[in-house]
Amino acid sequence: MSGVLSILVADDHALLRETLKRSLETEPGLKVVASVSNAEKAVAKAVRLKPDIVLMDIDMPGLLCFDAARTIGARCPETRVIFLSAFFHDRYIEQALAVGASGYVTKSEPPESLVKAIRAVGSGAAYYSPEVQSRIVADTQGPRLATGEGHTLVSTLTGRELEVLRYLARGMLKHKIAETMHLSENTVRRHTTSLMTKLQIHDRVELARFAIREGLAEA
Question: Do residues 107 and 86 lie in contact, with contact meaning Cβ atoms separated by under 8 Å?
């Protein structure tokens, strides 16, 4: 990465987005090259601008940030993603690690912690807020979510199934989920059937309720 770190900010709250942009640009060696309001725009801008870092809110309407991060990682291998969120549920942390995020910063952290995270990630390290770090263990295969002794139904879901579950919880129809995730509608149906089987749930309304109980539907 170059001496000046280029940053793309993605957050659906305009006030926070612009506040972040102004704050970061006062820091030496940091340059905000774009700010966008959703994950789809983040992907498009990242592909075009190839920023060093994408700072992305987890909870935005439309394309899930985890889908966006996966696409950015595939199409912009030198770009690193830091998630920013008021939430730090285990499911979020697990998905963030699964898509190769280099950082996860909670919105309760002071501004200087975000700058610290950006500089750490820009230098090739990773950064997780203390609340997130306490839920992560590192082994020979890299960081992963620390798991307790209990085995939950959610832990049996694949990353794709979790993403479909979150879209279903938002009230999205299957054809719209397919369009958003760039999958066929048949694939989404298969994921939905698998979700119902694994979670022992037999209708879409109960799937949505389950997702809300598990903290998977804040967006």
Answer: yes
Query: What six digits make up the tokens of 25?
Result: 């640009």
Contact assessment for residue 86 and residue 114, using Cβ atoms and an 8 Å cutoff = no
Separation CA 19–CA 70 (nearest Å): 26
3-state SS assignment for residue 7 = strand
Residues 6+ apart with CB under 8 A from 45: 8, 34, 36, 51
Q: For residues 109 and 86, give the distance between their C-alpha atoms in angstroms, rounded to a whole number.
A: 10
Could you report the per-residue pLDDT of 81-103, keeping only the tens digit for each? 999 988 777 778 888 988 999 99
Phi/psi at 188 (5° precision): -65, -40
Q: How far apart are CA 63 and CA 167, in angstroms?
A: 9
* Tens digit of each residue's pLDDT (9 = 90 or more) over 142-173: 677 765 444 466 777 888 888 898 888 888 88
Nearest CA-CA partner of 38 in 24, 18, 59 = 59
